[in-house]
Automatic annotation (TrEMBL):
The lineage of its organism: Bacteria, Pseudomonadati, Pseudomonadota, Gammaproteobacteria, Moraxellales. The active site is at residue 116. Keywords: NAD, Nucleotide-binding, Oxidoreductase. Residues 193-423 form the Glutamate/phenylalanine/leucine/valine/L-tryptophan dehydrogenase C-terminal domain. This is Glutamate dehydrogenase. GO terms for molecular function: glutamate dehydrogenase (NAD+) activity; glutamate dehydrogenase (NADP+) activity; nucleotide binding.
Length: 427
C-alpha cells in the first residue's frame, strides 16, 4: 500500500533508509499535539545538492564520481553531519542520514540542524593522491553551501581526519583565509579537539550510568556484554570495567570471549591494538558467536553492526539495559518486544551522541580560537549527556513511551517550536 505524504511518498513495505525515517516520524506525530501540523517540514530535506566530481586519475584518465550534500533541516543552527565515501552511497541514504542528524542534534539540544554528505566511491581503490583530488573537488563543488555558520561536515564511514584536513584546506583556499571551523574531526594540531576519538564510547558509558540510576540498577558488579571492540565498544567497555562493572563477554569480527569473573579490558585493548582482533587473547575462553545474546547479563552494548537485535534476540535476551553504541542495531519489530518486556533501550540518537557532542566542542573551540583540556571536554560532555538522558526520561514517563520515541518527540518538539517562533519567510 502506498501512503501519500504531501510531496514525498513512502511504502508500507519499503525498506529504504528514507522510507524508514518517514515511518518513524509517523509514529511520533500523535504525540506532538498542534505542532504535528508542522511535521511536513521534516518530511523533506531543506536542500539537496548532487554534484559531479571529475577526478584526474594517476594514469591520466578522467573518472567521474557522484557526490551529495543534503541539509535536512537548519532551523536550530548550521547543518552538522558526516561525509561518507562508500560504493553504495545514494541520495535516499544521504537524505535519511541527514534527517537522523537533525533528530540527534535536537535530542541532545545542540545548536545544530542536520546534514550529511557522501561520494559514491570505493576509497580503498584510489591512491592517496587520487583520494586527495577527489576530496578537494568534492569540497569545491559543495563549497557554497558549507561553512562554519552554514553546514559543518565531519568524518563518517570511509573518511578520516586526513580527509577533513584536505576539506578544511580547500575551503580555506577558496575563502582566502584559514577557516578551521568549517569541518570537525580534524587532526588535533589543525584545530581538532582532544577527547574526540574516545567520545562516543564515553557517551555510551555516561548514558548507561544515568539510566542505571533511573531503574535502580547498581552497576557495581553488574555484568556487561559488548559487541564490537573498535573505537566505540572498547572505550565503553573500559569505562564500565574501570567503574566497577564486570565486562564478562566481548565479541568482535574474529571471536567471542567469555570470562565469568570479568575480562581485563585494559589488557584486551592492548592485545587487540597489536593484533587487530581479540581472537587468541585467551583461546580457552572463546565461545560460539551465536551464544552472545544468550548470556545472562544486566547490560548489553551493541557497538558494531546494524540490525543485530531481531525478534528472536528480543524475545530471549536477559538484560535490563541495552545501550545502542552502533547506529540502528535494533529492528523495529524487536524494539516493540523489548519495550513490552520492560528492557530499557537507550536509543542510538542519544547513546552514541558523544561523538557529535565533542564535534560541537571542536567547532566552539575553533570559533573562539581557544582550546580546552581533555578534562574540561569530558566534564562538559558529561553535563550535556546527563541532561539529555534526564530530558528523554521525563518525556518517556509523560508520554508513556519508549526512550526512542521520547527522543524523537523531544527533538521534533524543539525543532517545530523553533520554526513556529521563527515563522515562515516571507510571512
Ligand atoms: P570500528 O570500525 O572502530 O569497530 C567496529 C568493531 O565491530 C570492530 O571491533 C569489529 O571487529 C567489530 N565487528 C565487525 N563485524 C562484526 C561482527 N560480525 N560481529 C561482531 N563484531 C563485529 O567502528 P566504531 O567507530 O567503533 O563504530 C561502531 C559502530 O558505532 C558503528 O555502527 C558506527 O556507525 C557507530 N558509531 C560510531 C561513532 C564514532 O564516533 N566512531 C559515532 C556514532 C556511531
Amino acid at each position: 500500500m502506498n501512503t501519500m505524504v504531501k510531496g514525498l511518498t513512502y511504502t508500507e513495505q519499503g525498506t529504504t533508509a528514507w522510507n524508514n525515517y518517514l515511518k518513524q516520524l509517523d509514529k511520533v506525530a500523535p504525540h506532538l499535539g498542534e505542532l504535528s501540523e508542522r511535521l511536513d517540514m521534516l518530511r523533506r530535506p531543506k536542500r539537496s545538492l548532487i554534484v559531479d566530481i571529475p577526478v584526474i586519475m594517476d594514469d591520466g584518465t578522467v573518472q567521474h564520481f557522484e557526490g551529495y550534500r543534503v541539509q535536512h533541516n537548519l532551523t536550530r543552527g548550521p547543518g552538522k553531519g558526516g561525509v561518507r565515501f562508500h560504493p553504495d552511497v545514494n541520495l535516499d541514504e544521504v537524505m535519511a542520514l541527514s534527517a537522523w542528524m537533525t533528530i540527534k542534534c535536537a535530542a541532545l539540544n545542540l545548536p545544530f540542524g542536520g546534514a550529511k554528505g557522501g561520494v559514491r566511491v570505493d576509497p580503498t581503490q584510489l591512491s592517496k593522491r587520487e583520494l586527495e583530488r577527489l576530496t578537494r573537488r568534492y569540497t569545491a563543488e559543495i563549497n557554497f553551501i558549507i561553512g562554519p555558520q552554514k553546514d559543518i561536515p565531519a568524518p563518517d564511514v570511509g573518511t578520516n581526519p586526513q580527509i577533513m584536513a584536505w576539506m578544511m584546506d580547500t575551503f580555506s583556499m577558496n575563502s582566502g583565509s584559514t577557516v578551521t571551523g568549517v569541518v570537525t574531526g580534524k587532526p588535533v594540531h589543525l584545530g581538532g579537539s582532544l577527547g574526540r576519538i574516545k567520545a562516543t564510547g564515553r557517551g555510551v558509558y555516561i548514558t548507561g550510568r544515568e539510566v542505571a540510576q533511573q531503574i535502580d540498577l547498581d552497576l557495581n558488579d553488574a555484568r556487561v556484554c559488548v559487541q564490537g571492540f573498535g573505537n566505540v565498544g572498547s572505550e565503553a567497555a573500559l569505562l564500565f570495567h574501570e567503574n566497577g562493572s564486570k565486562v564478562i563477554c566481548v565479541q568482535d569480527h574474529s571471536a567471542t570471549l567469555y570470562q565469568e569473573q570479568g575480562i581485563d579490558i585494559a589488557k584486551l585493548i592492548e592485545y587487540s591494538k597489536h593484533h587487530q582482533k581479540i581472537q587468541g587473547f585467551s583461546a580457552k575462553d572463546e565461545i560460539l558467536a551465536a551464544k552472545f545474546w544468550q548470556i545472562p547479563a544486566e547490560v548489553f552494548i551493541p557497538a558494531a553492526l546494524e540490525g543485530v537485535i531481531d525478534v528472536h534476540v528480543a524475545q530471549t535476551i536477559q538484560a535490563k539495559i541495552i545501550l545502542e553504541g552502533a547506529n540502528g542495531p535494533t529492528l523495529t519489530e524487536a524494539d516493540e518486544i523489548l519495550s513490552k518486556r520492560q528492557i530499557t533501550v537507550v536509543p542510538d540518537v542519544i547513546c552514541n551522541a558523544g561523538g557529535v557532542t565533542v564535534s560541537y566542542f571542536e567547532w566552539v573551540q575553533d570559533l573562539a580560537s581557544y582550546f580546552w583540556t581533555e578534562e574540561e571536554i569530558n566534564q562538559r560532555m558529561d553535563v550535556i549527556m546527563k541532561n539529555a538522558v534526564a530530558d528523554v526520561w521525563i518525556k518517556a514517563t509523560q508520554a508513556e513511551c519508549s526512550l526512542r520515541t521520547a527522543a524523537y518527540i523531544l527533538a521534533c518538539e524543539r525543532i517545530l517550536m523553533a520554526r513556529k517562533e521563527r515563522g515562515i519567510y516571507p510571512g
